Amino acid sequence: MSFYSQEPHFLEACHLCRKPLGCNSDIFMYRGNTPFCSKECRQEQIEIDEYSSKKKAWKISSSSSSSSSSTRSIRNSDSKEASNKTVRTDTVAVA
Length: 95
Fold this sequence. Notes:
The chain has about 100 residues and is α+β, with helices and mostly antiparallel strands. Helices cover about 30% and strands about 20% of the residues.
């Protein structure tokens, strides 16, 4: 087993469709070091990334809103029996 096995160069193929990138063809870059064979492949990756980040942000906001839901105990001092009432407050986000 060789310690110096050759890994493919990052500019050899399109990141999305894996089409080989030619020596004399345009290479469309995204996020610094991610190569694409065309504007269309690059745009598709941008849209995938945007969707993923929005989905992640939605999951974070929905989990934080459910964990921020709290219950509060309010004592009714006017009542002779001093009963506890529970009030639940929730935040609802609508997109």
